[in-house]
Amino acid sequence: MNRKPDRKLAAWGKAVRERDNNQCVISVARAAFLGPCKGDIDPHHVMPRGRRPDKKYDVENGICLCRVHHDWVHAYPIQAEILGLLSTETYEAAHK
Fold it and tell me: Where are the domains of the chain?
């Protein structure tokens, strides 16, 4: 099953990469806790698309993370939220 590529999402990722100079935004201090940067750079939605579909293409909702730190954010969502790398806010809660 072939799906059409989401050109708007690709443009979002490109804009996030350009803004962050295609570098992981994890600071040296945080990297000491999370481990060093490794792997490709991924654009990451701070407010996940499933929870905040209205922010899917919002560049301010994106940050660049290396693959190691991106995997860490998804493996440890509570800690990632404390560090501001992930938000669990839902669309419904944001619009009350």
Answer: 7-94
